[in-house]
Amino acid sequence: MRSGLRIGAVILAAGASRRMGADTNKLLLPIDGVPMVRRTVQRVRTAGIHDIVVVTGHEGARVRDALAGIPCHFVESPDPTGPTSGSLHAGLRAFGSEIDATIVMLADMVRVTTAMIATLMASARTGDAPLEVSRYGDVLAPPLLFRRALWPELLAWQGEGCGKAVVRAHLDEASLHDWRPEALADVDTPEDYAALTR
Fold it and tell me: What is the pLDDT of residues 11-46, one digit of tens each?
């Protein structure tokens, strides 16, 4: 039954934060007193997802420490400085056969809310679309939900982005969810972080 769809989440947290400057891991920066990566994982759990895979790489031990006490599974990216596809593949392969679909998230998309994640999940559980796609104005971006039938295509895809080629190939079958364009903003530079916390 669709209402029983078991949904997991892959949270990509392997990057080196190069644009943030030397010795600064942006995923550990506090937002409302909580490390950025922890805040993202908490929002995913609050949306009702309990099968969470966090893909680490740069300063993986520190990222894991920041998530202490939150039940989730960690995997290491095989190439943290390489294309996003390697991290996504590692996350997908960590799931067992009981998972029917997965949300794909970036750990630094700090304006993605629990309600946005829950909306994608509810749509998947009441419809037949193979994927749920977030749209910010003209931009398609995470969070994205892929049913398991699309995972072989995701695992065959190589490149940047969170399965953009697979999204484009199935866009006419997708359920689209429109969010305000400002919610797309992530935190890449000291200026981004200053604007967020101002």
Answer: 999 986 666 665 778 899 999 899 999 999 999 999
Q: Is the dihedral of CA 32, 37, 41, 44 positive or negative?
A: positive
| Nearest to 43, CA basis, from 120, 99, 96 | 120
Alpha-carbon distance of 175 to 173, in angstroms, equals: 7
Task: Please write the tens of the pLDDT for every residue from 95-141.
Answer: 999 999 999 999 999 999 999 999 999 999 999 999 999 999 999 99
Dist CA 191 CA 177 (whole Å): 29
Radius of gyration of the chain (CA): 16
> What is the residue extent of each domain of the chain?
2-197
Other beta carbons less than 10 A from residue 55's beta carbon: 29
As a residue count, the chain comes to: 198
Cα dihedral across residues 4, 70, 67, 20: positive or negative: positive
Other C-beta atoms lying within 10 Å of the C-beta of residue 163: 25
The span from the CA of 126 to the CA of 85, in Å, is: 29
Rounded CA-CA distance 80/31 in Å is 24
* Fold (topology level) of 2-197: Spore Coat Polysaccharide Biosynthesis Protein SpsA; Chain A (3.90.550)
> Is residue 87 within 8 Å of 16, Cβ to Cβ?
no
